[in-house]
Amino acid sequence: MLNKEELNELSREQLIELLFIDAKNVIAMDGVWFQSIEKEMGMDSAMHYDEEAWKLYTRSEARRIKKFLGLPEHPGLEGLAKAMSYRMVDRANPSETVLKDNKLIYKIVVCRVQEARTRKNMPLHPCKSAAVYEYGGFAEVIDDRIKCRCISCYPDVTDDTCSCAWEFWI
After folding, report:
1. Does residue 155 have a cis peptide bond before it, meaning omega lies within 30 degrees of 0?
2. Helix, strand, coil tally for the chain in percent (to 5)
3. pLDDT of residue 138
4. Per-residue pLDDT reduced to its tens digit, 127-151
């Protein structure tokens, strides 16, 4: 196990690289976990368990990030934008966040999960149903006034410039 003393010996660049490696590893673990259920029990069962996992995980992740950033109870869309950039998914996937006209638009520009499935000649992951819990749940923990809606996410793609897009408002 890498302990605190060993981490202290790493350079700043090595620590940053390790953060990105860890983010990619978490996404890979999520993917192979999903694929094992998909292979054994089918897509419907895999999606059911994926949704249940994201309902719990995203709230836990949001609580930890909110505490780490010292965000107040209602940090608004600005707080959500900041918190989103600290998510594992954000470090693993190129993303964009735009705050305009009292709305926050968050896009995953390139999704590692969909790219991996395409490389493996697998059908795309129908992630919208789980991502509704992922993004909506995360936003709700950051600020319970924030609402979320899907703009574009497989299988309901309406924006081909990104892998998925989400809108947040109060």
Report:
1. yes
2. 60, 15, 25
3. 98
4. 999 999 999 999 999 999 999 999 9
Contacts 24+ apart (CB under 8 A), 85-92: 87/61, 87/138, 88/22, 88/23, 88/26, 88/27, 88/61, 89/23, 89/27, 89/134, 91/19, 91/20, 91/23, 92/20, 92/23, 92/24, 92/26, 92/27
Arithmetic mean of pLDDT, 105-128: 95
The span from the CA of 37 to the CA of 95, in Å, is 28
pLDDT digits (tens, 9 = 90+) for 71-87: 999 999 999 999 999 99
Distance, in Å, from the CA atom of 30 to the CA atom of 151, rounded to the nearest integer, reads 23
Please calculate the CA angle 118-124-128 and round it to the nearest 5 degrees: 140
Which of helix, strand or coil describes residue 87?
Answer: coil
Cα 119 from Cα 11, distance rounded (Å): 34
Contact 18, 10 (CB under 8 A): yes
The CA–CA distances, whole Å, from 67 to 30, 105, 133, 150, 169 equal 24, 23, 21, 26, 22
